[in-house]
Design brief:
The chain is α+β, with helices and mostly antiparallel strands and 64 residues long. It is built from two helices and four strands, in the order E-H-E-E-H-E. The chain has one domain: 2-Layer Sandwich (Alpha-Beta Plaits). The strands form two sheets. A two-stranded antiparallel ribbon has the order 1-4. Strands 2-3 form a two-stranded antiparallel ribbon. Bound molecules: FE3-S4 cluster.
Length: 64
């Protein structure tokens, strides 16, 4: 199962991921993006595109 996570140390809160994928990401109280449902299975074909959308490369695969 493929899941995503946001590395809070790399995220600068630019909001690109939230604008492009509002069903997957939201802004946290700390001004950094977070995955809305970390258990959500994301379509494998979209993973690369989603990861590439972040200018800081803060979006990662989460294999937990
Ligand atoms: Fe942060 Fe990247 Fe999204 S910098 S707000 S994870 S596009």
């Amino acid at each position: 199962m493929i899941k995503l996570k946001v590395d809070e140390n790399q995220c600068i809160g630019c909001g690109t991921c939230i604008s492009l994928y509002p069903d997957l990401f939201e802004m946290g109280a700390d001004g950094k993006a977070q995955v809305i449902d970390s258990k959500k299975d994301v379509d494998e074909s979209k993973i690369k595109e989603i990861i590439a959308s972040c200018p800081m490369a803060a979006i990662k695969k989460n294999s937990e």
